Amino acid sequence: MVEQSSGGESQKDTEQQIAPEDESPPSEEQDYQEAARSTAEYADYEKPQKQRNPIWKKLGIIVAVLILVAGLAAGGYFLYKNRKSTDKSAENEQTAQNAAPAAETITTETKHYESVNFKLTFDYPGNWTASEDNPVLIDVLSPGIKLKDVDGKDVTGQIYLRIRSHDKPVLEADATSLRDSEKIAYSTPSQSQRASTYISFLRYSGNTESLNAIYITGDLGYEKDQNIPEVDIQKVDPIISIDFYLCPNSGCEGVSGVYGISEEVWNDEDISVPLTNMLESFVIN
User: Fold this and answer.
1) Phi/psi at 231 (nearest 5 deg)?
2) Separation of alpha carbons 209 and 260, rounded Å
3) Do 175 and 220 meet the contact criterion of CB atoms below 8 Å apart?
4) Which of 49, 217, 245, 260 has the smallest C-beta neighbourhood within 10 Å, fewest atoms?
5) Residues with Cβ < 8 Å from 211, sequence gap 6 or more?
6) What count of Cα atoms within 13 Å lies in the side-chain half-sphere of residue 272?
C-alpha cells in the first residue's frame, strides 16, 4: 500500500510538470510588462536633427540678394536720370529757340549799298546781309539780335529792312500808331529829296502792346493809338520799313511772319541809334 501511494503521487507530479500552459488571454499587467521590454532599447532614442547649411552658404545667399537689389536700384536710377536728361534736353532746346544769343548786337561798322533800280543809296550795319533779287524789292537782314518780347523776356530776333515799290500792298494788317511818330533828318539828302521825314511805329490789328514795324511816312506823323491807313503808306516812294521777327531757332533759319516785340526796345540806344542812322543815311534821287 505504501509503494502504490508513493507511485501515485509521483505520476501526479509528473503530469503537473508536463501539463500545457494556460491558454487564457494575457492580462493587462502582462501586456504592460511586454511593451516595456519591447521598447526598452529606445529609451535613449533622440529624434534626428535637420541638417543645417554651412554659414558661408547663408552669407552667399544674402550677398546675392543684396547684389540683385542694388542692380534693380541702379537700373531704376539710370532710367530716371536718362528720362530726366532727355526731358531737360528737350526743355533746353525749346529755351534755346527763344533765348537771345550772348553777344549779338548791331555793329557800328557799316557797308554802303547802291541800287540802280530804286535810284538810291544807304548805309547799313556791317554784319547784316543785303540782296536785291528782283527790281521791286531790296532785302537787308540782320543776324540774330537780342530783343525783348512784349513780356519783357529776352528773345532772339531779326531786324528786316525792306525797300519796296509803292504800288504793291505793304501792310500785314490794319495798323495803329503804338507811340507818337518821330521826325528824323536825312544826313545828305538829294535835291529831289525832302530834308526830313517822319518815322511811325506800327502795331498791327490783334496786337495790343507789341511793336511790329517802323515805316518812313514822309510828311505824315501820327499820335499814339491813331489809325495808320495803308493808303498813307503808299504815298511814300519807295516804301521803306523796318520789321521785327522772332527767330524759330538759334540760327534764325526759316524766319517768316511779323512778330511783335516790346515797345521798350526802341528806348534802347543800342537798337534805336543804329537803326535811326541807317534811315537817315538814305539818299533818294
Assistant:
1) -60, -30
2) 8
3) no
4) 49
5) 178, 201, 202, 203, 244, 260, 261, 262, 263, 265, 266
6) 13
CB 125 within 8 A of CB 242: no
Report how far residue 200's alpha carbon sits from residue 105's, in angstroms, rounded to the nearest whole number: 23
Give how far Cα 261 sits from Cα of 80, 104, 158, 198, Å. Answer: 39, 17, 11, 21
In single-letter form, the type of residue at position 64 comes to: A
Q: Cell numbers 541702379 correspond to what residue?
A: 74
pLDDT exceeds cutoff 60 at 51: no
Q: 206 CB contacts (<8 Å, ≥6 apart)?
A: 173
The per-residue pLDDT for range 176-221, each reduced to its tens digit, is: 999 999 999 999 999 999 999 999 999 988 766 789 899 999 999 9
> Which helix (H) or strand (E) segment is 37 a member of?
helix 28-38
Any idea where the domains of the chain sit in the sequence?
Answer: 110-284
pLDDT digits (tens, 9 = 90+) for 150-186: 888 888 888 999 999 877 767 766 899 999 999 999 9
- Can you give the pLDDT at residue 272? 94
